[in-house]
Amino acid sequence: MGRDRVTLADVARRAGLSKTAASMVLNGREGTRLSAEAHQRVFKAAEELGYRPNIAARSLRTRKTATIAFVSDIVATTRFASGLIRGALDAARERDHVLLIAETQGDAAFEQFAIEAMLDRQVDGVIYAAMQSRRLTVPPALLTGPAVLLNATGPENVPCVLPDDEQAGRTVTTALLEQGHHDQIAVIGRNRLKERNPEVSLAAEARMRGIRATLAEAGTTVAAEAFCQEWLPEFGYRAIRALLRKPTRPTAVICMNDRLAFGAYQAIADAGLRVPDDISVVAFDDDPIAAWLRPGLTTAALPHEQMGRRAIELLLDSHTAAPCLVSMPLRRRKSIAPPA
């Protein structure tokens, strides 16, 4: 019998049960009062016949299609942030859902087309994700049904999932304090645009809040700061060079991301100094480069997979609009030590 012609009635006949009973077993409904042996007959018959449920017909009855839209800017083609999709895929599969993924590359016209196309397919909800943690302008079409913002915020009534950057600021600062650094902790990567404009970044201000609060609780402050136009290695290099020209050398440096730390390592080495013997370094994100630096970089990791998973859980299970903050674990490597 051809797979495309197999019906629920065929399965029921093969199992020796009514169509209603077979349907209840295959749909996992409780209270069938059928024996375990009868359940096994149904599953065996479905497997032998190659039965596949008619999803379109089921969706007409249940108003559910078991599909979720995942719309992003550049997440899908960015290796570092691909964990957002991986976590969402895993969580969706565990709930017997599939993802329809679209990447807009920042093209507003295509974004509108992609969203409308997915909504036309009657998806059960939409995950709207951003590569950089920031506040988004949410397309009005998304507000007509269940939606979750991933790595972003938007209207207060839309649930969102974010990394806990403020707590991460506390975590990396505490790691330095525990090693005995106190009065000579510097920060590189200050950036007024990132810190003042949530549409550019939510991370910068939150990380600085955590750093400052932890130092204040320890009775100290940031000893020196370096502003950087971008969070890229060349700006980290320049920032360290500038700090080393000051009369007092920092004993530790907090870099606002790992790429800045990469540049900082090079500048420290060029000055004839060593990490962590002369200067300890910590950072944020756990970019793949962090583990390849020598010594390995201690950094607060962006929990992308956990965030993607949590977005699916919020979409399918929760009715809250409160932001969900996901902890950024500290990856302890060899870049910090007590002050020389």
TrEMBL record:
SMART domains, A to Z: HTH_LACI
Source organism superkingdom: Bacteria
Gene3D superfamilies cross-referenced by the UniProt entry: 3.40.50.2300, lambda repressor-like DNA-binding domains
Swiss-Prot/TrEMBL keywords: DNA-binding, Repressor, Transcription, Transcription regulation
Residue stretches making up the HTH lacI-type domain: 6-62
The UniProt record lists the keyword Cell cycle: no
MF terms in GO: DNA-binding transcription factor activity; transcription cis-regulatory region binding
The UniProt record lists the keyword Ribonucleoprotein: no
Pfam families reported in the protein's UniProt record: LacI, Peripla_BP_3
Name of the featured protein: Alanine racemase
Organism: Phytohabitans rumicis
